Amino acid sequence: MFKGSGWLAAGVTALLVTAGCKQQGQQQQQEVQNDARAQVEAAQERSRQAMEQAQDAQERASDEQKQVADARQDVEKARKELQEAEAKAQQEFQEAQRSQQQASNQATQAQAEVQQSQQQAQEAQRQQQQELAQSQQQAAQQQEQVARTQQQNAQLQGNQQLQQLVTGQVVSASPDELLLSSAGGTGQPRLRLQLNAQTQVLVDGRQASSADIPEGSQVRASYQDVGGEPTALRVDVTSRGAQQGTGGSQEPASQDGQQLPRQ
Length: 263
Fold this sequence. Notes:
By secondary structure, the chain is of the alpha+beta class. It has two domains: 1-124; 164-259, CATH 2.40.50.320. Helices cover 64% and strands 19% of the residues. The chain contains two helices and nine strands. It has helices at 2-162, 240-246, and strands at 164-174, 177-181, 190-194, 200-203, 206-208, 218-226, 229-238, 254-255, 258-259. The longest helix is centred in the N-terminal third of the chain and has 161 residues, at 2-162.
């Protein structure tokens, strides 16, 4: 009996212990669940915060992407505008070069035309001067010819008007002088004729010189005044032998029927 009571007590105690353990386990499980719930809630809170941060970060990234896209558009627009500006500047530069080249060509052509015009003008002026010089030379030659003709005519007229004839006997003859007198001898009028290179001397019809004129021969001479001196133009001499051979008579020296002037 006592032994059965022991077993009962032991069973009760075991039940009590088991109940206590079960209750303690439930409490611990409740605590674990509470801790797990708190951790889950904390994790959920952290996840929510992380999601909010991620969303904020995504929004910022979207904004930044939009800004980058806008910046890229601006850069592309600026690049396009720069290319257009460069193309326009290149076109204007080429047009300026073409205009400058055209202006240079026109200036060169104008300069060439000016030089050609100057050369033509100079050539025309040279030809005019040459023609004028030729005309002046021809006019001068014509004037000189006319003057020469007039002078010759005047000389011829003067010679015809001033030329005189004289006959007489030779008193003396030298290369530049011939002295004539009448046949009356000493005291008769005398005429001194100058001789020069143009004086023509004929002795008995033959060409001669003043050295071939013998004294006492008969002379018929033509002369004219040159510088106030009677200068012989032609002297026809008849020697004494020719006079005796022909039986000619001596004629007194005369000057156009006038008496010779006394020297």
